[in-house]
Design a protein that fits this description.
It is built from eleven helices and nine strands. The chain has 356 residues and is α+β, with helices and mostly antiparallel strands. It has a five-stranded antiparallel beta sheet, with helices on both faces. Strands 3-6 form a two-stranded antiparallel ribbon. A two-stranded antiparallel sheet has the order 4-5. α7 crosses α8. The chain starts with a helix and ends with a helix.
């Protein structure tokens, strides 16, 4: 009995050794590893040297047969400030998108020293609540934060308006029930990006959220900080995409077929455009600094040789008119008088002769 058992064990060992010899090297190791899922690829045919981003997206929507009124899009290049919109002021229910400006409100309170991230709000410290609403999109944590901020939700949403840069008078009543427009979302994302030192923790949480779907579906090596939202009939995503030329993007859909796929593909189109800009738009050449013009060596002004002032020629002294002798002066009137007497005498003598 024992001998039979030994023979059976030896036979099994022999078969096992044979099977190991027959298996190609590395096959067993490869079989032990789980095959990674295939990488998703998408690139929409576009020639950005001939078409603008807006023209490409409009062509994509037409080919997808997406009703123009059932989608709203906003895009802004963060280097140049160039932007493009489709239905910029159309308000769609944005679902959980409101959780981003809600988190920003609390960070501002922390920065002001009015509250701490360690302070407990509901079941968790504030820091954990913020992680829950941005990474996991927790509705329960969001309700706790809204109630703590103000039981009147209209006031909660009113406090979010300054992040967008919009005038409250331009917002419809639907806004106060978490209906956002592309222009509102882009403005809020711009504040988030501009104040990245203040809101850095929130940006890090957004980078952890859903990194295989929505804008992150075809992200390749790029980081995507985004907040998605969904409610019956509505699906959207909004965020900062960190390509070589970072940009802001929001896509809001309303009863759009395959909406999540559409959002991911639009994100990839915008990434391709950012890559095109990075490779084809030259950096502005700085104006050359002109060489300083050397100061000319001053030529000494020649000192004029003083011309001697000529001595003035003295005016000739007029010769004095000689005065007549004193005797002559007395004689002149005497002669005149004598002549007069002679003439008178002659006249008298003449008259007498005539009478005779």
């Amino acid at each position: 009995m024992k001998r039979t058992l030994r023979r059976a064990v030896a036979a099994l060992l022999g078969l096992l050794l044979c099977s190991l010899v027959m298996v190609p090297a590395g096959t067993a190791e490869a079989a032990s590893k789980k095959k990674p899922p295939p990488k998703k690829e998408f690139h929409y045919p576009a020639d950005f040297s001939q078409e603008s981003l807006g023209e490409v997206i409009e062509r994509y929507l037409a080919e997808r047969k997406i009703s123009p009124d059932h989608i709203a899009i906003g895009w802004r290049d963060l280097e140049s400030g160039e932007e493009w919109y489709h239905n910029p002021d159309l308000f769609f229910s944005a679902g959980s998108t409101y959780k981003l400006p809600l988190a920003m409100l609390y960070i501002d309170k922390v920065e002001a020293g009015e509250i701490s991230l360690e302070d407990k709000i509901g079941s968790y410290p504030l820091g954990k609540d913020l992680e829950l609403i941005l990474v996991r999109s927790s509705n329960a944590a969001a309700k706790v934060l809204k109630d703590h901020w103000n039981e009147d939700y209209t006031e909660v949403f009113r406090d979010m308006i300054p992040y967008s840069g919009l005038d409250e008078a331009t917002l419809p009543k639907e806004f106060y029930t978490a209906a956002f427009s592309p222009r509102f979302v882009i403005g809020t994302l711009q504040t988030l990006y501009d104040e990245s030192e203040r809101y850095g923790m929130l940006i890090d949480y957004l980078k952890q959220a859903r990194q295989t779907t929505f804008f992150a579906a075809y992200r390749d090596k790029y980081e995507v900080a985004h907040k998605y939202g969904s409610i019956t009939g509505f699906l959207c995503d909004s965020g900062i995409i960190y390509t070589e030329r970072p940009f802001l993007l929001t896509v809001l859909t309303h009863y759009t077929g395959a909406a999540q796929t559409v959002i991911g593909e639009l994100g990839r189109i915008a990434m391709d455009y950012a890559e095109y800009l990075a490779q084809n738009v030259p950096e502005p050449t700085p104006e050359p600094t002109p060489e300083p013009t050397p100061e000319p060596t001053p030529v000494p002004t020649p000192v004029p040789t003083p011309v001697p002032t000529p001595e003035p020629t003295p005016e000739p002294t007029p010769e004095p008119t000689p005065e007549p002798a004193r005797g002559a002066k007395a004689l002149a009137p005497s002669l005149a008088g004598g002549a007069a007497i002679v003439c008178a005498a002659v006249v008298l003598l003449t008259r007498r002769k005539k009478k005779e």
